[in-house]
Write a structure and sequence with these properties.
The protein has about 210 residues and is α+β, with helices and mostly antiparallel strands. The chain contains nine helices and seven strands. It folds into two domains: about 90 residues, Orthogonal Bundle (Arc Repressor Mutant, subunit A), CATH 1.10.10; about 110 residues, 2-Layer Sandwich (Gyrase A, domain 2). It starts with a helix and ends with a helix.
Length: about 210
C-alpha cells in the first residue's frame, strides 16, 4: 500500500492543467529513466521515454512541482523524496526484459515486465489489455507465477511445457520470480512502445 500511495502521488500530476500529450505510463517511464540513469539530460529523457521535447519539459516541471525531481546544468536527477519512491517501485516492479519476436505474445518487438505480488489484482485481464492498447502497443499476454510455473489464468497451467521457447529461461534468469508474481509480455512495432504497453498494463496491478 505504501508503494501504491506513493505512485498515485506521481500519477495525480498528470491531471493538472490542460490535457497532457503523454500518459501515466510515459510519466512513470520518465521517472524510472531518471532514477536508473541518476542524471539525464532532457533530450535523452525525451528519447528514452517516448516524449516530445515539449512533453518532456512538462513532465520535468510536474515532477519538480511534486518534489520528486530536480534539475541542474547536467540534467535531471531524483530528490530524496524521489529516491524513496524509486526504491519502493523497485520492490514492486521487476526490471524490463527485452524479447525478440518470441512466442510469448504478439508483436515484432517485445518487452516483459514483472509485478511483484500482482496476482491478487489480476482479474480477467481486460484492464491490462486496454491499457496497453491505449499507448499504441498490442494486447499483452499476462502470465501468473504459480509455484515455479508460468501459467495463464483460465488457460495453460504450465506454459513452458505447452509453449516451448528459450524466452522462458531468459525471464527466469533476469527476474527473480515468486509465487503470486505477474509477468506482462507486450509487443509492438518498436521496443519503446512495447515497454510503454507493458508498463501501462502493470499500472493496473499496483
Amino acid at each position: 500500500m505504501r508503494a501504491l500511495s506513493a505512485l498515485l502521488g506521481v500519477e495525480t500530476l498528470v491531471g493538472k492543467g490542460p490535457s497532457p500529450s503523454f500518459t501515466r505510463a510515459h510519466l512513470l517511464l520518465a521517472f524510472l529513466n531518471i532514477g536508473t540513469n541518476e542524471v539525464i539530460g532532457r533530450q535523452a529523457l525525451a528519447r528514452e521515454s517516448g516524449l516530445g521535447e515539449g512533453a518532456a519539459r512538462t513532465v520535468l516541471r510536474r515532477l519538480r512541482e511534486g518534489g520528486y525531481v530536480d534539475v541542474n546544468a547536467s540534467g535531471a536527477f531524483l530528490t530524496k523524496k524521489g529516491r524513496g519512491l524509486f526504491q519502493l517501485l523497485q520492490g514492486k516492479l521487476l526490471p524490463f526484459v527485452e524479447l525478440d519476436n518470441s512466442r510469448l505474445t504478439v508483436g515484432r518487438e517485445q518487452a516483459a515486465l514483472g509485478v511483484r505480488g500482482g496476482s491478487h489484482r489480476l482479474g480477467n485481464g481486460i484492464p491490462q489489455r486496454d491499457s496497453a492498447i491505449m499507448v499504441g502497443a498490442s494486447a499483452p499476454t499476462t502470465y501468473e507465477i504459480r509455484g515455479s510455473r508460468f501459467t495463464v489464468p483460465g488457460g495453460s497451467n504450465d506454459c513452458e511445457k505447452d509453449f516451448p521457447s528459450g524466452a522462458w529461461g531468459l525471464l527466469k534468469k533476469r527476474l527473480i520470480l515468486r509465487n503470486g508474481d505477474i509477468v506482462i509480455v507486450c509487443g509492438a512495432q518498436d521496443g519503446l512502445k512495447a515497454k510503454l504497453g507493458a508498463l501501462s498494463a502493470a499500472l493496473t496491478l499496483l
